[in-house]
Amino acid sequence: MLSHLNTPQREAVKYLDGPCLVLAGAGSGKTRVITQKIAYMVQQCGLEARNIAAITFTNKAAREMEERVSKLLGKAEAKGLTVCTFHALGVRIVRQEAKLVGLKPQFSILDSADILQIITELSGNADKATAKGIQWTISGWKNALITPAEAEKLANDEATALAAKLYPAYEKTLRAYQGVDFDDLIALPVRLFDAHPEARERWQNKLRYLLVDEYQDTNRAQYKLLKQITGDRGAFTAVGDDDQAIYAWRGADAENLNLLQKDFPKLKVIKLEQNYRSSNRILNAANTLIANNEKLFEKRLWSDHGLGEPIHVVMARDPVHEAELIAMKLSAHKFEYKSHFSDYAILYRGNHQARLFEQQLRSHNIPYVISGGQSFFDRAEIRDLMSYLRLISNGDDDLAFIRAVTTPRRGIGAATLEALGTYAGTRNVSLFAVSQEEGVAEHVAARQLEGVRSFGAYITALANRAHKEPAGVLLEDLLRSIGYEAWLMETCEVREAQSRWRNVRDFVDWLTRKGEQDNKTLHELVQTIALINLLDKGNEDEADAVQLATLHASKGLEFGHVFLVGVEEGLLPHQSSIDADTIEEERRLMYVGVTRAQRSLTITACERRRNGGEIRMVDISRFVEELGDGTKRVGKDDEPISKEEAKNKFANLRAMLGPK
Ligand code: ATP
Ligand code: MG
Q1: Which ranges carry the UvrD-like helicase C-terminal domain (predicted)?
Q2: Helix (H) or strand (E) holding 520
Q3: Whose C-alpha lies nearest to ligand 1, atom 9?
Q4: How far apart (Å, rounded) are the C-alpha atoms in residues 432 and 420?
Q5: pLDDT recorded at residue 660
Q6: Is 9 an active-site residue?
Q7: What is the pLDDT of residues 359-417, one digit of tens each?
Q8: Is 517 noted as a catalytic residue in this protein?
Q9: Does the structure's ipTM exceed the value 0.95?
């Protein structure tokens, strides 16, 4: 079974005497070590799958790992294994220990838009930029486990002082809604385990061995959670690469690599040096590039995949030309090498770059999937329905109440909501709860009272059914009762309404399937959806399609042929990083992009790009130079050919090749 591993990988898999860190460059088989180690522990060491947890960076990575382990072990032996993100693990802990943290198990997980709304209200309608700033600051504190009291002392300028002032009220509001934010999913378990050793012990007994992928991008709170769960035993394996730390802006802290060595003096550190992913040209370029960063840990990578093709660097006139060139090159390449669309990826720095590529791919009939864009679950129509599901699940969720009661409009206006809100405030209960009380009649106009009452009664009826009936059936019923399709037709333009309705149907299918597959209750499904984030989007689709992704979302993945686009000063490295002098993180981002490629890598840059309404000349990125001499500039004069010409060209080729 261990024959698919090299010597240091095998050592990492077999090492169970204490904490273990696999510190190695891209494509060296770190993730493979984790999957193999799970199988090894179950098959050879008698550990039970239900006592093992593997932590991945995205839900998608979790699904893939679960599949792989199932193949190695078989479904029966893999049963009960936990493979999920830190946040998903947090949800499980909070759900199970809800009482101890003062929540109901059906707590709501509020997303970024909800949070922004709460902060805007608490701050007395601050503008969007200010509210977002406050949101970031508070989130940063929570990731670093800083309490409101501590934050108050830290505030040394006006902006942070404002955030510190709102922080306690913000926490209070969340709890009043029986809601948590994303950061709470880590911070609450950490506080819980600090305060309740017996709960910590429960989880230590349940999760006897922990494996963590992409360790370099954990934050302080996640590290603490890891320490609490593994306890003195230090029963864990972490794998990571400091050169791929790209989430500092979201509170990740590569210092956690050093902390591990300090906190666990017996830590076994294993390095892997053979890369199994890329050709040597690609690997050398990546090594040369990253050598420009100050080194934390010395690493060298080699591969026996041969030298491979030079890295192509293509200059385009502007972003439209760039997208045209890539669609053309991709089609031609695929035809020539008889590859699959899924062998290709187009990677970029910012989401806004995706649109032009989508247009060109569509016009060339090239199928694609996109990750890192607007999430399916962020769409207005899905959020509408989610507000109902959240409310059914948790009557204290005032945000969900407000959205649900006003969508579709049922004659309940701002004045009614305000009156309800005031009354609820004095009684210290939720909007939903007061809407069911007798006393509400004194506060709400009789005409609207009927609407409020029947809405509340309907939600209560659904909540009662939620225990017995599948989520899909309830949603189907809900759509019919609220006349959602008709409402879409009334309020949107026809095509828009149709497209939204299609999304709704997809959502119903998804919920039905998920409910059956995982045997999950409505509450659990609602919490699962809240966790599906931007990085996961588009991945349910296994079709043969080109992958479009941000560099951040491409972590851990690999593709035969990679197009790294917009490699320009100001974009990669991003202007804000040039200004803030945080080039090293941008270089790591470039390193992540380069090392996704197995056989070929094409880098493109534009001569001109629109920036702040103005079209400006731009320079090719410094990182291209830093790749060393394995690159080759090609096609500076490449002109995109028209579809007609392309057709003829392929027709000629086909004629030359003869019948199949
Ligand atoms: P990244 O840093 O990008 O996350 P990684 O270190 O996790 O990369 P993996 O994704 O585990 O690397 O492995 C890269 C590729 O090499 C995968 O296709 C994997 O199946 C393959 N691989 C890993 N180890 C071996 C091995 N010993 N023999 C053959 N192939 C291997
Ligand atoms: Mg990996």
Answers
A1: 280-556
A2: none
A3: 29
A4: 9
A5: 40
A6: no
A7: 999 989 999 988 755 667 778 899 999 999 999 999 999 989 989 988 888 778 778 88
A8: no
A9: yes
| Structure tokens given for 646 | 């392309």
pLDDT in tens, 152-169: 998 889 889 999 999 999
170 Cβ contact list (under 8 Å, min separation 6): 118, 119, 122, 138
Q: Verify whether residue 213 is a known catalytic residue.
A: yes
Residue 593 annotated as lining a ligand binding site: no
Q: What is the spatial distance between Cα 188 and Cα 87, in angstroms, rounded to a whole number?
A: 11
Reference 90, options 212, 161, 8, 192; nearest CA is 192
pLDDT digits (tens, 9 = 90+) for 338-363: 999 999 999 999 988 998 999 999 98
- Lookup: tokens for 360: 């060109």
Residues across the chain:
660
Task: Give the nearest ligand 1 atom to 34 CA.
Answer: 11
Q: What is the pLDDT of residues 181-211, one digit of tens each?
A: 999 999 999 999 999 999 999 999 999 999 9
Tens-place pLDDT, residues 509-522: 888 888 887 778 88
Rounded CA-CA distance 12/434 in Å is 58
Q: How far apart are CA 344 and CA 341, in angstroms?
A: 6
> For a substitution probing ligand 1, which of 1, 3, 10, 32 has the most ligand atoms within 8 Å of its CB?
32
Lowest mean pLDDT among 125-139, 404-418, 493-507: 404-418
Average pLDDT, the chain: 89
Tell me: cis bond preceding 408? Omega within 30 of 0 counts: yes
Please give the structure tokens belonging to residue 320: 């439209």
Q: Which residue among the candidates 9, 31, 135, 550 is catalytic per the annotation?
A: 31
Ligand 1 and 68: CB distance under 6 A: no
CA gap 262, 258 in Å, rounded: 6
- Which tokens in the block code for residue 53? 């947890």
CA of 21 to the centre of ligand 2 (A): 14
For ligand 1, is residue 56 a contact (CB within 6 Å)?
Answer: no
How far apart are the C-alpha atoms of 13 and 72, rounded to whole Å?
A: 14
- What amino acid is encoded at 64 in this protein? E
Q: What are the two backbone dihedrals, phi and then psi, of residue 617, each rounded to the nearest 5 degrees?
A: -70, 140
Which residue's C-alpha comes closest to atom 14 of ligand 1? 27
- 26 known member of a binding site: yes
**DSSP-derived pairing of the beta strands 608-611 and 614-617:** antiparallel
Q: What is the pLDDT of residues 462-491, one digit of tens each?
A: 999 998 899 999 999 999 999 999 999 988
- The amino acid that residue 573 corresponds to is P
- Alpha carbons 104 and 102: distance in angstroms, whole number: 7
What's the CA gap between 135 and 159, in Å, rounded?
Answer: 11
28 appears as a binding residue in the annotation: yes
Does ligand 1 come within 6 angstroms of the Cβ of 622? Answer: no
Residue 197's pLDDT is what?
Answer: 96
Q: Is the beta carbon of 9 within 6 A of some atom in ligand 1?
A: yes
Q: Tell me how far the alpha carbon of residue 450 is from its chain's centroid.
A: 42
In this structure, what is the dihedral angle of CA atoms 537, 257, 209, 20, given to the nearest 10 degrees?
130
Establish whether 244 is a catalytic residue: yes
